[in-house]
Specification:
Distance between the termini of chain B: 25 Å
Strand content of chain A: 25-35%
Largest sheet of chain A: 6 strands, mixed
Helix content of chain A: 25-40%
Number of helices of chain A: 10
Radius of gyration of chain B: 19 Å
Low-confidence stretches of chain B: none
Oligomer: heterodimer
Mean pLDDT of chain B: 89
Number of strands of chain A: 14
Number of strands of chain B: 0
Largest interface: A-B, 36 and 27 residues
Strand content of chain B: under 5%
Distance between the termini of chain A: 37 Å
Order of helices and strands of chain B: HHHHHHHHHH
Structural class of chain A: alpha/beta
Radius of gyration of chain A: 24 Å
């Protein structure tokens, strides 16, 4: 079941910049969806439109069953947003700013909810501290806390780990998984492909205002991912022997390494026959390892091919 | 309507008032006291009565209005400009609140502060000059109506402004002259004929005179007209703010 439906949403700014070109997207209840794309691709514009911060030029959005214009109070009450920039009420205390957010989103005061959110974010000890006295990582957590204070069913995280150290990033991933277990749908944008690879159920790639791909992460990895077997040879080889010429092999490191590429989707990887043929040809090797292409490589290839296909895309 | 949001905004804004209590209350009280010392006691003692009211007492309603107008505009604009400036406006824009909740919360808090301030100045003034209030109910009505109207004007300025200079310039360049020329310190019957006519285009004249009538039972202009004009100005501000919200003017792009 879809918790969020975006149909035909486009955005042209007053400057004429075409930030989004008719985006259609369906988000399933309880999933973690990662929206990837280079800077200026339209990730934040899309999120801001869904959250009501930017007005769409065309298209409709339904959040938790409510039209986001006609029934905006109900639609927005279902959504929590953690924006990219660290913008907080510097002079307020953590507790007051959280209580404010909860009320603003239409929920009656409930100290136990706020306490739980603060404890989950390891901010409980700081509840009476003024926000300006907190570190950058803590401020980021305060912003997450504000977004969670009204118990939303959809949470947007726009670049959640920008400027966050490794340890905190791990904690945050843990927290996001915890939220998903409680049934919260999470949509995150990120530059860190590692983050999407680690967490997402599905991945959408946006480039130049167009959603060029939406796919299950695992399927995407399978479909676009390549696996390679690297053999470190005992003796350098000048060229690939004719007996092996038919196989997808290449030589690297001045003939010291033999690379075999294969498809991860097929059950028959062809590794066993390859090794047999190597033995028959008398080629000895010292070591071997396999490697899978990362989401990052997949992403870079996608965006690059998208760039060559699309020459009309206007950039700011 | 999202009542919890109204409460949250109101409480949040009022907490800023309490936190900056000294600045919020003490500064205007001190300024007003200075006015009383200079105009009320020092100069006022050499001036005759204005329509049977001693000059010191005559300027009390005008002085209260002067401060209430300035503070309403500045509180009203600050409340919405600050989140715009700091970037925290994203939360308000993404929240399940419309024009009604936003206005009730922000201008409600700004107007509350002005009303409190007006009453504090009233009490301060009583220390300097003796006076009575003939129509306490109408006095409160004018005070509240003025506070709300000008907090709304401030809100509108806060949305329009994109720099601190702009926030400052309207109170300084528009509200202050209108107030000084609005009969705070004189009866408009003291003006030459031409200026008596021109001055009737100044909305503050109606505010000051209506307010003064509630104190001493006399006014340069008709009280009903006073009240209606103030109400009309309130509706005008409301219309502009609702247009701003509908079009997302300077709030959404």
């Amino acid at each position: 079941m879809n918790v969020l439906t975006v149909s035909g949403v486009s955005k042209t700014y007053a400057t004429g910049f075409h930030a989004l070109k008719s985006v259609d997207l369906e988000i399933r209840r309880g999933e973690i969806f990662a929206l990837l794309g280079p800077n200026g691709a339209g990730k934040t514009t899309l999120i801001n439109i869904i959250c009501g911060i930017v007005t769409a030029s065309t298209g409709t959005i339904t959040a938790d069953g409510h039209d986001h214009v006609r029934d905006f109070r109900k639609a927005r009450a279902a959504i929590g947003l953690v924006p990219q920039e660290l913008t907080t009420d510097m002079f307020e205390t953590v507790w007051n700013t959280m209580a404010f957010s909860r009320g603003l989103f239409g929920k009656p005061p409930d100290d136990s909810v706020l306490e739980k959110v603060l404890r989950d974010l390891s901010l409980w000890e700081k509840k009476d501290a003024k926000i300006m006295t907190l570190s950058g990582g803590m401020k980021r957590r305060v912003m997450i806390g504000k977004a969670l204070s009204h118990e939303p069913s959809i949470l947007f995280l726009d670049e959640p780990s920008a400027g966050v150290d490794v340890e905190l990033r791990r904690d945050m991933w843990q927290m996001v998984r915890g939220l998903r277990e409680r049934g919260v749908t999470i949509i995150l944008t990120t530059h860190y492909i590692e983050e999407a690879e680690e967490m997402a159920d599905r991945i959408g790639v946006i480039n130049k205002g167009q959603l060029i791909l939406v796919e299950e992460k695992n399927a995407l990895m399978r479909k676009l991912g390549k696996k390679q077997l690297t053999l470190s040879l005992a003796q350098p080889m000048a060229s690939i022997p004719p007996a092996l010429a038919a196989l997808p092999l290449e030589l690297q490191k001045e003939g010291m390494e033999l690379i075999y590429s294969f498809d991860t989707q097929t059950h028959d990887t062809g590794i066993a026959p390859l090794l047999r043929k190597l033995q028959e040809a008398g080629i000895e090797f010292k070591d071997l390892h396999t490697a899978e292409s990362s989401l990052e490589e997949i992403f870079v290839n996608l965006v690059r091919s998208g760039a060559t296909n699309d020459t009309t895309g206007a950039r700011r | 309507m999202n009542l919890h949001a109204v409460k949250a905004i109101y409480k949040f804004e009022m907490s800023r008032t309490w936190r900056t209590l000294f600045q919020s209350i003490a500064t205007p009280v001190m300024t007003t006291s200075l006015y009383f010392v200079v105009f009320g006691s020092a100069i006022g003692s050499r001036m005759g009565d204005v329509s049977g009211v001693s000059y010191g007492a005559f300027i009390v309603p005008g002085l209260i209005m002067l401060t209430v107008l300035m503070e309403s505009v500045s509180n009203g604009s600050f409340g919405i400009y600050m989140p715009k400036f700091a970037g925290t406006i994203y939360e308000l824009l993404s929240a399940p609140v419309g024009l009604t909740e936003t206005l009730l919360g922000y201008t409600g808090a700004a107007a509350t502060k002005s009303v409190i301030l007006g009453l504090v100045i009233l009490a301060t003034a009583r220390v300097f000059v003796p006076f009575g209030i003939e129509h306490p109910f109408w006095m409160m009505a004018f005070l509240v109506l003025t506070s709300v109207t000008f907090a709304l004007l401030g809100f509108l300025i806060g949305i329009w402004a994109d720099s601190w200079e702009k926030i400052q310039i309207v109170p300084m360049m528009v509200v202050t002259p209108l107030t000084f020329l609005g009969g705070s310190f004189y009866s408009i019957s003291m003006l030459p004929d031409v200026w008596q006519k021109i001055t009737l285009f100044n909305p503050v004249v109606y505010l000051v005179n209506g307010f003064r009538w509630s104190f001493y039972g006399q006014s340069d202009v008709n009280v009903v007209l006073s009240f209606s004009m103030t109400l009309a100005f309130l509706l005008l501000c409301l219309a502009v703010v609702s247009w701003m919200f509908r079009t997302g003017y300077k709030l959404k792009n």
